Automatic annotation (TrEMBL):
Cofactor detail note: Binds 1 heme b (iron(II)-protoporphyrin IX) group per subunit.
InterPro entries with a match to the protein in the record: HemJ-like (IPR005265)
Membrane protein topology class: Multi-pass membrane protein
One Pfam family hit: UPF0093
Alphabetical UniProt keywords: Cell membrane, Heme, Iron, Membrane, Metal-binding, Oxidoreductase, Transmembrane, Transmembrane helix
UniProt catalytic activity: protoporphyrinogen IX + 3 A = protoporphyrin IX + 3 AH2
CC cofactor: heme b
Name the record gives this protein: Protoporphyrinogen IX oxidase
Transmembrane segments: 12-32, 53-76, 123-143
Signal peptide, first to last residue: none
Family statement drawn from the similarity comment of this UniProt entry: Belongs to the HemJ family.
Subcellular location: Cell membrane
Species this protein is from: Tistrella arctica
Assigned EC number: 1.3.99.-
Length: 146
């Protein structure tokens, strides 16, 4: 029973995390294509607040519940879990880059040059990177190939 509750909590945290990261990617893309920083400022402020109140905590809960499941299942010696953890670290790093870019773009409102609005290269295709990482994670969890 406890395992099922922790698994459900893990999945809910993952859904909140992925939804927030996709929203981050969309807002970053929109903010960098707007003609003026003043137009993007309210959207960036809202998304930064959402990220700190929902997406960031969802990331922490995802790790907490995921590691709890790994301990309950005794999976730490399994190679599939190690590969999954690398993919999860990639998602965590991507979220960190997104959160930092949201804060930076929101903070630098006084600058109007388009170069300052450009996100770092990994974030230009954040949704695609997320899709690949999530696909790898799902396949590893369901199939456990090694």
């Amino acid at each position: 029973m406890l395992y099922a509750v922790v698994k459900a909590a893990h999945l809910l945290a993952v859904f909140a995390l992925i939804a927030g990261m996709l929203a981050n990617a969309l807002v970053l893309r929109m903010a960098t294509t707007m003609s003026s920083r003043q137009q993007a400022a309210p959207m960036l402020a809202t998304m930064t607040a959402w990220d700190s109140r929902v997406t960031g905590p969802a990331l922490g809960l995802t790790w907490l519940f995921g590691l709890s499941l790994a301990v309950m299942g005794g999976w730490f010696p399994d190679a599939w879990l190690m590969v999954k953890l690398v993919a999860v670290l990639g998602l965590s790093a991507l979220h960190g880059m997104q959160a930092g870019s949201l804060r930076r773009l929101g903070r630098d409102q006084a600058r109007e040059d388009q170069a300052a609005l450009s996100p770092p290269p990994p974030l230009r295709h954040a949704a695609a990177v997320m899709a690949v990482l999530v696909a790898v994670i799902v396949v590893l969890v369901i199939i456990r190939p090694f």
